[in-house]
Amino acid sequence: QLKKLTTHIEDKNSYEEIVEHFTADDFLYPEKVNKTLENLDTLPAIPAKKKKGFNPLLMLVNINSIFPLLIWKKAYPKIKEKEYISTFRFTVGITAFPVFYLIQTAIISYFFGVEIGLIYLVISVLAVYILTKTRF
User: Fold this and answer.
1) pLDDT for 67 beyond 90
2) Helix (H) or strand (E) segment spanning residue 30
3) Which of 108, 100, 102 is nearest to 70 (CA)?
4) How far is CA 28 from CA 81, 117, 122, in A?
5) Full DSSP string of 43-63
6) Given pLDDT bands bounded at 50, 70 and 90, which one contains residue 55?
7) DSSP state letter for 62
8) CA dist., res. 60 & res. 48, Å (int)
């Protein structure tokens, strides 16, 4: 019964090749994936991966978030179990980034005024939001 409720790939030898035929979102619908897996012979060819081009918004957000990103880069190799990578990444995302942005906002407000500091904070948050919603 559990195999019906989750995605189950029997062929251990071709596991990686089979998984490449699906996106991460496909696995949210195990019934659909399992139905596709019943007809392995009819799986389409794996689409070519899109090449990533230059993204100025990504570069801007990375520069603006340098210290939280350095924390993540330093901590990532120390995570032994793959299951905890997403959890730790989420934790860094909801703690280090807001704290860092608030510290930057305080520094900018001190030197340039509260209005400029708040504008900086809004632009920073909007840039991250736009980047996460438009990235594939």
Assistant:
1) yes
2) helix 30-38
3) 100
4) 22, 41, 33
5) PPPPPPPPPP---HHHHHHHH
6) confident
7) H
8) 28
